[in-house]
Design goal:
Oligomer: single chain
Structural class: alpha/beta
Distance between the termini: 79 Å
Radius of gyration: 22 Å
CATH architecture of the largest domain: 3-Layer(aba) Sandwich
């Protein structure tokens, strides 16, 4: 009887211990501000899969650059999802993300978007081109490029748009200087920028396409224009080297690249990196779409435009009182 009772107790205890171990797996996702709603749907979907069974999440959202610096300063993270590649590579340099993070077929990217003009309903100022933003009286809202990844995409979209119009690099830089004289608000993040615009500030908000779609789905009285020349935004994701749950973290990132997960991203306005997931969605093509490589690649761009001491944008933001 004792042997039977002991066997019964062990038999009941082992599954309970295994279940407890699964429930103790908690992943920390540190992400930029805009995909919060998308992850609010993606995480429950992952938890319904075999790989996600018993995995819970802690989530942190904010301006991409600030989030990256927070992880570098010690903020716990298993998975980082940022607006742009340099916010991940800065963690690679600190051995917080593996050098091989972008060696998969998606090159480390999980979503795409483009830079658009979010305007008031009816587009009363008739803003369609980058030069239209320089019209007298036009007020521009864009996040601060020294905190927001989305803002850096905006800067490079404007610079590349000027190049596509036939300007020299010097003339394109001059265009940025003129544009920044029209900037009336520089919130910390893309999501804060949207809130500022919806509160009534400015005539145009430079933003991700997905943010414009988000605003429309929330019933906000705005529309958006995709300029003929705009930049292809690519958003990276990576598992940290310090993660104590690498198996589950990699499983989550793998799940995010499935067709079902990518369709959830598409429903939230993001352009999928998995082509099959884009079927049934209308993501317009533009005749002069370009990538970050067209304007020099992130390594050169970061030094030329966004160095905190010598970058071009330091001069423009300083002169505008930012």
């Amino acid at each position: 009887m004792r042997r039977i009772s002991l066997a019964l107790i062990i038999g009941l205890a082992v599954p309970a211990l295994a279940a407890g171990a699964a429930e103790d797996t908690k992943l920390t996702l540190v992400a930029y501000s805009t995909p919060k709603d998308a992850y609010g749907q993606l995480i429950p979907a992952f938890q319904k899969t075999q790989a996600g069974n018993g995995v819970s999440f802690s989530q942190s959202y904010g301006a991409s650059g600030e989030q990256s610096r927070a992880v570098a300063a010690g903020l716990d993270a298993d998975v980082v999802a940022f607006s742009l590649e340099p916010d991940v590579t800065s963690l690679v340099q600190k051995n917080l993300v593996a050098k091989s993070w972008n060696k998969d077929k998606y090159k480390g990217m999980v979503t795409r978007s483009v830079v658009v003009f979010v305007v008031r309903d009816g587009n009363p100022k008739k803003l369609k081109t980058w030069n239209d933003l320089l019209k007298p009286g036009v007020q521009v809202v864009t996040p601060n490029p020294f905190t927001s990844g989305g803002a850096r995409w905006n800067v490079m979209a404007a610079y590349g748009g000027a190049l596509r119009a036939g300007n020299t690099p010097k003339q394109a830089v001059d265009y940025l200087g003129k544009l920044w004289k029209h900037v009336v608000a520089q919130p910390t993040s893309a999501r804060e920028g949207l809130q500022t615009f919806l509160a009534g500030r400015g005539d145009v908000f430079l933003a991700y396409e997905n943010e414009a779609i988000f605003a429309q789905k929330k019933g906000q009285p705005v529309q958006f224009v995709i300029p003929k020349a705009t930049i292809l935004i690519e958003n990276p994701i990576a598992v940290t080297s310090t993660s104590k749950h690498k198996t589950e973290a990699h499983a989550f990132v793998k799940f995010l690249h499935t067709r079902d997960a990518q369709k959830i991203f598409a429903q939230n306005g993001y352009r999928p990196v998995v082509p099959a997931a884009a079927r049934g969605f209308n993501f317009p093509t533009r005749p002069q779409l370009f990538t970050i490589e067209y304007v020099g690649g992130w390594a050169k761009v970061e030094k030329k435009f966004f160095d905190p001491r010598t970058g071009i944008m330091v001069r423009f933001i300083g002169s505008s009182g930012g």
